[in-house]
Amino acid sequence: MVGNRTFSMIKPDAVRDGQSGSILKMIEAAGFRIVAIKLTYLSSERAGEFYGVHADKPFYPSLKAIMSESPIMALILEKENAVEDFRKLIGSTNPANAAEGTIRKQFAKSLERNAVHGSDSDENAAIEGSFFFSNLEKY
Ligand code: ATP
Ligand code: MG
After folding, report:
1. By alpha-carbon position, which residue is closest to atom 22 of ligand 1?
2. Whole-model pTM?
3. What is the pLDDT tens value at each position of the chain, 139 positions in all?
4. CA of 90, nearest ligand number
5. How many whole angstroms from 110 Cα to the centroid of ligand 2?
6. What CATH code would you report for 5-133?
7. Is residue 119 a contact partner of residue 3, using CB atoms and an 8 Å limit?
């Protein structure tokens, strides 16, 4: 996966609350092509592995619990400058700081339940995409 792809997840409570369709609509309207999509489930262990960079943070146990409480939607998205443009589309981590028109502004319930994940670098986009999908060269 090179610079025109990113990885995203629609988080459990957003999927559970029926917001996936509206979020996908915003993603496509912003010019991203859905390359791969999967409704799946993260165990607490897998959620902890996915967010391993935060293992020493105080919020890590609750992050693992929230990310494993019900299914998530995993996405690989394609667009020029995908990683940076997608981070702009989702908005700040804390929805209180998220700009108007961003996904988190519209759908996040709190800092911990902020509706979507977006990769923060091309390198992590490739790692995270491979965490959920195999044979990506065929997509
Ligand atoms: P994500 O990786 O999910 O796209 P992000 O890159 O905007 O989010 P990170 O710093 O990677 O933010 O944090 C990962 C997730 O952990 C956040 O999306 C949020 O749900 C949660 N989180 C981050 N900081 C805090 C905090 N101070 N208190 C509680 N939860 C937090
Ligand atoms: Mg992050």
Report:
1. 112
2. 0.96
3. 446 999 999 999 999 999 999 999 999 999 999 999 999 999 999 999 999 999 999 999 999 999 999 999 999 999 999 999 999 999 999 999 999 999 999 999 999 999 999 999 999 999 999 999 998 888 8
4. 1
5. 15
6. 3.30.70.141
7. no
